[in-house]
Write a structure and sequence with these properties.
Distance between the termini of chain A: 53 Å
Number of domains of chain A: 1
Distance between the termini of chain B: 35 Å
Number of domains of chain B: 2
Structural class of chain A: mainly alpha
Largest sheet of chain B: none
CATH topology of chain A: Helix Hairpins
Radius of gyration of chain A: 17 Å
Order of helices and strands of chain A: HHH
Oligomer: heterodimer
Shape of chain B: extended
Strand content of chain A: under 5%
Strand content of chain B: under 5%
Number of helices of chain B: 8
Order of helices and strands of chain B: HHHHHHHH
Number of strands of chain B: 0
Chain lengths: 103, 195
């Protein structure tokens, strides 16, 4: 197994773990944590392809990862603010009890 | 496949699995910190120093604190009594397993993944700064705008509803509210500060 394949396998496993957590956990915060793990798995893919790709001097993969980290931080801030707003409104963040769009 | 890579990868994957499977949310947040730090170590191992330290600063420093704050503010810090998994969790696990199987099969059988090990590329902070200021200057500006708007949006969403209403009415032409009513304006919570 080449190093690139190892990186990609680790990233695929991380993505699967994040996906499983995001779709199976009842807590809204943990669903967001699962999404963060999936984003990080994608970042690891970009870094691996930058490191073992044909043109590493162009720094494309690094740049994508830097911008992706910034976007993930913004996403986490807005998502957790939404969770707090939902908790204040309904007194629960259990995703099974938040079913209707009506306030 | 070097031994440091394998050790870091195993620690990261176990911490991620623990973050997704433990019952207590505070424990989940702590093992998420371990997983994110392990990912930063993987980036360092792959030769991406700047991204590794940015990962530590942003994720371990800011996002983890944000998640702990959200856990405490929603009072879900204690271990729940009822089930923590959604009713259809078995199908969810099956979907995740199918996704991993598809990805793993593609990785294993891909001919495009060249076996030749490339020499370690050089990515100094000076080079990254050069590229950010020349070729990627427009995305950089857009990211700055996005972070600013996400900060303002997070503060507004997390603000108390009555406080937001009072602020809007006081900011308009209706100034007949008593000072006691306007003193109920709460400072916005600290959610946006970490972005």
């Amino acid at each position: 197994m080449t190093p690139l394949q190892g990186c990609l396998l680790v990233s695929a496993l991380l993505f699967a773990i994040g996906l499983a957590g995001a779709v199976t956990r009842r807590n809204a915060i943990l669903a967001l944590v699962g999404i963060e793990l999936m984003l990080n798995a994608a970042n690891l893919n970009f870094i691996a392809f930058w490191r073992f790709g044909p043109h590493p001097e162009a720094l494309t993969g690094l740049m994508v990862v830097i911008f992706s980290i910034a976007i993930a931080a913004a996403e986490a801030a807005v998502g957790l603010a939404l969770v707090i707003a939902i908790y204040r409104h309904r007194k629960t963040i259990n995703l099974d009890e938040i079913k209707d769009l009506r306030g | 496949m070097s031994w440091p890579f394998i050790i870091i990868a195993v620690v990261t994957l176990f911490a991620a699995a623990a973050a997704m499977s433990w019952r207590n949310l505070v424990h989940c947040a702590l093992s998420l910190v371990v997983a994110l730090a392990g990912l930063a170590a993987l980036y360092l191992n792959l030769g991406a120093q700047f991204v590794g330290f940015a990962q530590i600063l942003v994720y371990v420093g800011a996002v983890a604190i944000l998640i702990v704050f959200a856990i405490l503010l929603t009072r879900s810090g204690e271990t729940p009594n009822q089930a923590v998994l959604a009713p259809g969790w078995l199908s969810g696990l099956a979907v995740a397993a199918v996704v991993f199987a598809a990805l793993g099969w593609a990785i294993w059988h891909s001919a495009a993944l060249s076996p030749a090990p490339a020499p370690a590329p050089e990515a100094t902070v000076k080079k990254i700064g050069d590229v950010l200021m020349t070729r990627y200057v427009l995305p950089l500006e857009v990211i700055g705008l996005l972070l600013t708007s996400a900060l303002i949006g997070a503060v507004i969403i997390a603000m108390r509803e009555d406080a937001a209403k009072t602020k809007i009415e006081n900011g308009g032409l209706k100034m007949e509210r008593t000072p006691a009513a306007s003193s109920t304006v709460q400072p916005p919570s600290s959610q946006g500060g970490a972005a």
